[in-house]
Structures are given as C-alpha cells and as structure tokens.
Amino acid sequence: MKSANFDFEKPQTLEQAISFLAASQGLGKPLAGGQSLGPMMNMRLAQPESLIDITALDALRKTEETASDVTIGAAITHAAIEDGLIPDATGGLMRSVAADIAYRAVRNRGTLGGSLVHADPAADWINLMPLVNATMLAAGPHGIREIDATQWMVGTFTSALQENEILVAVRIPKLSKEARRSYYKINRKPGEFSEATAGFLIDPSRNICSAMIGATDGPPTHLSRAQELITELRSGQAGPLAHAALISAGLESDTHAYKLHAVAMLRAVSLLDSKKGEMQ
Asked: Which domains are assigned to the chain?
C-alpha cells in the first residue's frame, strides 16, 4: 500500500519546526528516522496531513556531557549510540541495548527520540529510560518542559508529549564505576520486538536499586522492593516477590507471557553478577 497524500515541510530551525507543528493544528507529525511512522503511513494506520522533517535540526543532534550526566539529542541514531560515537552515561549498557535493536539498516536511520515518541511497549528505549532515571526534554511554544522518564509513556503508543511539542533531547545521569546494571529481552529471533523485557540497576554510591519489567500491554512497570527481589531471584527461582512483581505488571498467573517475563527477570539478575553486567 501507499500512504495518503500529505504536505512536506523541512524547517531550518527548531523554532520553525514548532511553528509548523502548531500551524498543523494537530494534523501534522514530526518525522525523524521514519522507521515506525513510514510503515504505519504506508498501511494507512497513520494519515497525517503534513510531515515536518526534523532529522537534520542541529538542536536535536547535539550531545552534551557534564560531570553528572549526558544529554543526548533526540535525532541521534541507534547506530551512533551502538558505535560509541557519543558518551554513554550508563557505562556500556546503552551501547549493548542499541546493538540489539532491529537490524543495522534500521539502526542507521532510527532515532532515540523517534522510538521514545512512538512509545511501543516492546521497544527498548521506552523500557530502559525509566530504569536509568532519564529525563525527557520537550520543546514547545512556551520553551523547554522536563518530563521524568517514569511519566513519559502514558499508554500504548501514547507519550506525555503534547501535540505542539517536539522531543529535543534525553538527559541521563551518569552511573558510578561501582554500578551494576542489566537488561534482558526475549524475542524469537534477532531483530524482532521483545516479547518480555526485564532490567535491574544497582548503584551503591548513589543509593539506587531499581528493577523494571517491560514489553507488556502498557508502560514499563517499576518494581518495589528491588533489592529483596534481586536476592530472591539470585536463588534461581521466581518466588513470591517475583510473582507479585509480575502481577503488578498486569501479567496473569500461569500464562505464556507471565512465564516469559519470569525467565527474563531471572536472566537479567544473572547478568548483574556476570563480568559485564550488561545485556544479552
């Protein structure tokens, strides 16, 4: 199939892009890598009246590093993260995650911001960003608005971004050298979306211990009592705390999805104790 007719705008500045978006009155869509929006338009699942090409905007391609965090422009590609072309605040975890997103051809075009705005529950950045305490920076007519990553995804394919806003960047706090982190996803073959995702982060020097379950029917679930959960899972069994975590993520007992997510949690915890403590 082919997309419905649409107008195409190529702004030269972020301010111009926001102006084009406002003028579309909710009927326009920013276009970044196009790896999700393009196929949706071809299948006519999405029919914007105009596309606003933001891929080359300098404001979305910047990376800034400070002593405490790294701010990554929304138009930075998965491949750039995978190849280490930008600083990795997570000590290698983002590079590992990026390398396992779809296929290299997709990673060459797909962007960090585009994936986050698309808000697919099975996608990687939408699940990883809350785990690493990221903050989204959205630009609109009234300036920059900061959105905590735990509040970013409000539903399947729905983010907290307002219709007159553009995601400009993601700010990620740096992990300490003592931090241990893991991310594990289950898919039937490389390149497919995840069927079950789990992640853990322990950073004693920053007093952080967090856990996440993703690739469910909605936003990723941040798990309480993370340290106790990790201790339980290190025994090699998904016990009562794991069961409660899975239920809190909306998974029904003894279903296929429940079992897959239980395995993902067990394998993610095993990675915490591995040499890399990252991802497989």
From this structure: 7-53 (3.30.43.10), 58-173 (3.30.465.10), 180-272 (3.30.390.50)
